[in-house]
């Protein structure tokens, strides 16, 4: 697989490194309160890719998953706390990787916004 065929990323401490095969089905900002709390930000930002193309290249033992709902699982590095992905047990063929962990930064468009009714009023205007 060539570099142009996948996204790659890592956690803050560098202990976890991964790659995810393209294409990205869509990228999104999720304003649900669970994403806000986990990310400590206005939204969780994700690229939705095929689970079959997601490979942890280093640090698999550092990844912990938290069951944030009946169907949602949030993966993070237990050493530094970086949020790495969100996945649904109802759609095991897909995984949503966090845009902020990608290297280089994600260059594609963000096409979707989820739970906009929870979008914080303190976000800056365009």
TrEMBL record:
List keywords of the entry alphabetically.
Lyase, Metal-binding, Zinc
Query: Which residues belong to any copy of the CENP-V/GFA domain?
Result: 7-115
Pfam families, alphabetized: GFA
Q: Name one GO molecular function term.
A: carbon-sulfur lyase activity
Is Repressor tagged as a keyword? Answer: no
- Annotated InterPro entries: CENP-V/GFA (IPR006913), Mss4-like_sf (IPR011057)
Is Zinc included in the keywords of this UniProt record?
yes
Family note = Belongs to the Gfa family.
Write down the PANTHER family for this protein, in alphabetical order: CENP-V_GFA DOMAIN-CONTAINING PROTEIN-RELATED, GFA DOMAIN-CONTAINING PROTEIN
Please report the name of this protein according to its UniProt entry.
Answer: GFA family protein
Q: Which organism is it from?
A: Duganella rivi
